[in-house]
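User: What would this chain look like folded?
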Amino acid sequence: MQSARQLPVTYIENSYGGATRDYTSLNVWESDTDTNLVTEGNGKVLSGYKDFPSYDDEIFLGAANTDASYFRAIQPAPGEGHTGVPGTGFKIAYTGASDKQINCFDHYFRAHDIEFTRTVNSASAPRIFFLGRTNAKVVGCLLYDGINTGAGSVHGIYQDDDKCITVDSLIKNMSGVGIVSNPAAGFTSYIYNCTLQGNGVRAVDHSSGTTVCKNVLANANVSEDFNAGTYTGSSNNASSDATAPGTSSRINQTFTFVDAPNNDFHLSTSDAGAKDFGVDLNADAFFAFNDDIDGDLFATWDIGFDEPGTPGGGGGHLLGRLAGNGGLAGNGGLVSYGGGLAG
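Assistant: Here's the prediction, encoded as structure tokens.
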């Protein structure tokens, strides 16, 4: 099995949360891990605990030396992950003024299975994620309620560099765009198996470089689901309007969710718009994986973040964490298990 949740080959793990944890500030952990991870031969992983309902916090990542084997990642601790439904897991709810909540200038950075919200008063368009370096990845995250009480809006994820990807994620109710994908000319960014629901402008906004969308479900986004752009290599997307790009894509679809009024956007087993219409990404040339938002395996592949009819995983997705080399003792006395090799 190739999990979408890929951790460093070996790593040092620290805890984040209340006063009993190693860190109570994301930026303090970032500063302490601004080292040459490649020379050290260890990645750095921060695991969050639900000591509080949410954390009003931000992070700027930018000074570590990383590669595909040794990088930095943030995730919930075991048992602290969401169930694919907002309000059930480790959550970062930022109310500050910084333009970017998770401001990533780290190559190969990973964020796995975390909930994010954003409330701001701004005349511009702040983002929850800014992915500004190659191979940055957001996997299994829930981004919702991006609220701007000023004249501007809030975007969910801005993919700005080559080979950035968002996978298995729900992006809902941003006042702006769900994912802005604008790599430079000659660069490509990727969106795989995401559900983009009810955002205030579009699900995906793309105007430069190439964006590859596969198995992306876009529903009821206010302006339109996808804008026109270069979507070469895209396939098997679905939209509630006529904009889904790529081959074998489905337009003007109606989707059936488990309990949309209560924010459960897992696909119903009775869905006829996205269920079983996906492309198999188990051997994808860029990012091969086969698990969904809950860590369940895709059988007949679906469009969107969920394999319907399987029980939710949650709890930090231990399967992805236990699938690699033996680990090293973390600074806070935690034991790291080493996830699979990075893609």
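Residues 26-32 form the longest helix (7 residues). If you want, I can go into more detail on any region.
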